[in-house]
Please model this.
Amino acid sequence: MRHLQQPVIFDSARRRGPDRAKRPLEEYFQVARGWVLAIIAVGTLRLVLTLQGLPNNQVKLASMTGVMSLAAAHLAILCARRGWSYRDLFVLSYFLTLPYLLVEIAGLSLAALTREPNIFHAREYSFGTPLWLHLTGHILGAFTWEAWIIWLVGCLVCWLTAKVEGKASLKAS
Model:
């Protein structure tokens, strides 16, 4: 009579998705804390340097994107070595984009309030868009494509690390 049973449409124990992290957020934060602080520190340095009047071609050397790239690679290798899943790496990618977003919001807000240009809304980085559109793009990007790109690159690094170190492939969930 097995074929007459109702199919299970929703089983919360088997539900998968980004809203069901495998670990508490505190554990992810403990792993990413140093990188979160580094992103905020470099972003703050960037803001201070631009407010001191240094030219953008010098201030750009204090690169939050560079720190985020190093962080993404490090966290991906760490996930591979710990046997963490790609879902864990997905959560960690947001721990890199959100501090970046906070610094960007601060820099763009300061540019709007003072009506003084700074590196966060320089023509070469804003593509000539109005400040409100540039800010909206950063907010949308941080929650979507920026984190997703970090995650995808991290997945590749994670996979390569597992292959090079001869570990079993990572779990998909």
User: Anything to note?
Assistant: The CA atoms of residues 105 and 136 lie 10 Å apart. The chain has a mean pLDDT of 86.
